[in-house]
Amino acid sequence: LEAKADVNAVNRWGSVPIVAVIMAGQANKVGILLEFGARLDISDTDGCTPQQLLQTGLLMHPSLRTAFEKHAAAKSQPTACELCGKPGARMRCGRCVSVVYCGKECQKTHWKAHKSSCKTLKKTVSVDQCGPLAQVAG
Fold first, then answer.
1. Which of 36, 44, 50, 100 is the most buried (most CB within 10 A)?
2. What 8-state DSSP symbol labels residue 102?
3. Residue pair 137/127 in contact by the 8 Å Cβ criterion
4. What is each CA distance from 18 to 66, 93, 114, in whole angstroms?
5. Between vectors from CA 136 to CA 135 and to CA 138, what angle results, nearest 5°?
6. What pLDDT, in 10s, does the model give residues 78-122?
């Protein structure tokens, strides 16, 4: 990678390296690929992206999720807490990963209001969108 290898090179099956690393459960390699610019929005031949694998939790080991979250936190701009509006909130909803809070108290307080939209946001990327991978998970 230091010799400028393309971390987003598509193989003959239409997949990028980070998908193989995700499916093998190699969190340390996920971090390295992300560090060298691996993109999460490149679709394979089934139309599934690494980002969708993350959002669906498909074949996702907790250490992989942690690697993605660390990378996202390092890259993301501070945002405002969904409840109190305090800037710099970094704690994401663990279910939909779409809203941020400044802490557990705000998350717990906001849960009743967020619950229904959380379910909808979680369903935005369904297992069906990942083609044959859905059969592996099912």
1. 50
2. S
3. yes
4. 15, 24, 32
5. 60
6. 578 999 999 888 888 887 777 889 999 999 999 999 988 887 765
Judge residue 115's burial from the number of C-beta atoms within 10 Å of its C-beta, 0-12 exposed, 13-18 middle, 19 or more buried. Answer: exposed
pTM above 0.90, yes or no: no
43: left (phi over 0), alpha (psi -120 to 50) or beta: beta
DSSP lists the bridge partners of residue 101 as 91
The answer to whether 53 and 60 are in contact (CB under 8 A) is yes
| Tokens matching residue 75 | 């890259």
Task: Determine if residue 85 is left, alpha or beta; phi over 0 gives left, psi from -120 to 50 gives alpha, anything else beta.
Answer: left
Instruction: Give the up-direction half-sphere exposure of residue 17: CA atoms within 13 A in the CB hemisphere.
Output: 18
